[in-house]
Every structure is written in C-alpha cells, then in structure tokens.
C-alpha cells in the first residue's frame, strides 16, 4: 500500500491522480476515471470531483493507496 501525503483537508480524485503521478493532465484524469475501476473505501467511484480525505483507501486496478496528512 502506497502512502500519499496531502497538506489540505481533502483532495479531489482527479487531482489525486495527477498528484500521485498516475496521469499527467486533467483531461487524461477524466479519461482514466471513465476507463478504469477505481474504488474509494471499497466503493466504486466515477466522479472525478470525489473528495478524498485522510484515512481514505483508494484502489486503482488492484494497486492500493492510502491518503495521509
């Protein structure tokens, strides 16, 4: 499980994908979210504005990330 440290209260899913170097741009993030199964705390999400907070677990095609402050 990879830890991703944020310095704010939350980070939106599309911003997280860029911050974690999974995608390079917002447009790429939008496409990536529609084409891949992304789970936040076990639930499939497709909203790129989904707010991720400290303690949230993100599963992207089997690779796990945890958000920490």
From TrEMBL:
> Is RNA-binding among this UniProt entry's keywords?
yes
Q: Which domain of life is it from?
A: Bacteria
- Does the keyword Repeat feature in the UniProt annotation? no
Going by the UniProt record, its keywords in alphabetical order are: RNA-binding
Q: Which NCBIfam families match?
A: YaaA_near_RecF
Q: What is this protein's record name?
A: S4 domain-containing protein YaaA
UniProt organism field: Defluviitalea saccharophila
Name of the coding gene: yaaA
